[in-house]
Specification:
13% strand; 14 strands; 419 residues; 3-stranded antiparallel beta sheet; 50% helix; Cytochrome p450
Length: 419
């Protein structure tokens, strides 16, 4: 980078050359020079230091409800689209207490640690079948395949579909729908593309609505049936709330899990000593998953609204953020902050003692409901890569998704020896 480029004021620009492949250099400059950065593109503030991100995520004077925002072109457009949509507005992640607490209580039981641990056999079996299908299609021995398309991307949606009792033949459709919804989360998008995505999302809502209607009169032994009949203090989920939360859980459970495995394996290819260490000491697996979430996790930004004026200590003084401002807090940047993680913040260390204190799963009342399930799936997939693949290496250039909110790979070509 030239001296003149270095002298230019730092700005958040996800359209900059190289950002998609590696946003962390831009995040580092923001943390150092303008950690409470006013983004003209987003009409809000990008917050990038660990201490600030952690504070905002836990602050009761910060909201998840967009109606509290001072109107901007982006918020006006999103509220309009939300209000015109026939359903989908009361998603758990966009509500404050007490509505948030009410819905979370009704849907939380299947995602608690004990209930998730009971799914280990189901998850392990789906992972085993997926690898067996690779062997059946390509043969054993040395093969080349796409770790995303053939492994990391389909598995989380297959597992969640089976948990919900959704027929096997409908799983591929759900993969497509979930990808559409995840893509729609980005705040800046071509209107034609967004309109197409909304149409696909409506197809998903209609399918789940039909499935819920079928299951209401039955006593099936699956999570969807359990949610249909869930009660708390005499209250239960309306059909609209149930469908909306199911869609939210799909996206929250699928895209980040696939991103963790894909991003994590690429990180391991670039830190071969850490992969070798994990191969020799499987007791490090759980901590390794935490470290990979910290190092290059999928959740890049979380949006919040300041309910009152906020003041942050920043280089050269303080920065004031007016109440009503839209805040884009970055767990991905926070997890690379050397002020929190020390001089090795930009390295993979699967034995890092405090790796589990990363912010990929959020913090406060909106801490990720599906974090235990995401961990279980990720550990099962990494275990399969360790057990069933005698060797595995990069076989071509990775292709990154262009999304701003969720970071993940579209393609990760690998060469592996299966047994």
């Amino acid at each position: 980078m030239s001296t003149s480029e270095l002298a230019e004021p730092v700005t958040f620009n996800p359209l900059a050359e190289g950002f998609v492949a590696w946003p962390y250099d831009q995040y580092a400059r923001l943390r150092a020079e303008d950690p409470i950065h006013r983004s003209e593109l987003l009409h809000g503030y990008c917050i990038t230091r660990f201490a600030d991100v952690n504070t905002v995520l836990r602050d009761p004077n910060v909201s998840s409800e967009l109606d509290h925002a001072t109107p901007t072109p982006l918020t006006i457009d999103e509220i309009r689209r939300r209000d015109e949509a026939p359903r989908g507005g009361r998603t758990l992640v966009l509500l404050d207490d007490p509505d948030h607490a009410h819905l979370r209580t009704l849907i939380a039981k299947p995602f608690r640690p004990r209930e998730v641990d009971a799914l280990r056999g189901l998850v392990d079996e789906r992972v085993r079948v997926r690898v067996d299908q690779l062997v059946g299609a390509r043969g054993s021995g040395e093969i080349e395949f796409d770790l995303i398309e053939d492994f990391a991307y389909p598995l989380p949606v297959e597992i969640f579909c089976q948990m919900l009792g959704i027929p096997e033949e409908d799983h591929p459709g759900f993969r497509f729908w979930v990808n559409c919804i995840a893509r729609s989360l980005d705040p800046v998008m071509d209107p034609v593309e967004r309109e197409a995505l909304v149409g696909h999302m409506e197809d998903m809502y209609a399918f789940i609505e039909s499935l819920v209607a079928e299951k209401r009169g039955r006593a099936d032994d699956d999570i969807l049936s359990g949610l249909i009949h869930a009660e708390e203090d005499g209250a239960s989920l309306t059909t609209d709330d149930l469908i909306t939360q199911i869609v939210t859980l799909y996206v929250a459970g699928h895209e980040p899990t696939a991103g963790l495995v894909g991003n994590g394996m690429l990180a391991m290819f670039n830190h071969a000593d850490q992969w070798a260490l994990l191969q020799s000491d499987r007791s490090l697996l759980r901590n390794a998953v935490s470290e990979l979430l910290r190092y290059d996790g999928p959740n890049q930004f979380v949006r919040r609204i300041a309910l009152e004026d906020m003041v942050f200590d920043t280089p050269g003084g303080t920065t004031s953020v007016p109440g009503g401002s839209v805040l884009y807090v970055s767990p991905a940047s926070a997890n690379r902050d050397a002020a929190r993680w020390g001089e090795t913040a930009d390295a993979v260390d699967i034995a890092r003692p405090d790796a589990a204190q990363h912010l990929q799963f959020g913090a406060g009342i909106h801490a990720c409901l599906g974090s235990h399930l995401a961990r279980l799936q990720s550990e099962a997939m990494f275990t399969a890569l360790l057990d069933r693949f005698e060797t595995i290496e990069l076989a071509g250039d990775p292709v990154w998704s262009t999304r701003m909110v969720i970071r993940g790979l579209n393609q990760l070509p690998v060469r592996a020896t299966l047994h």
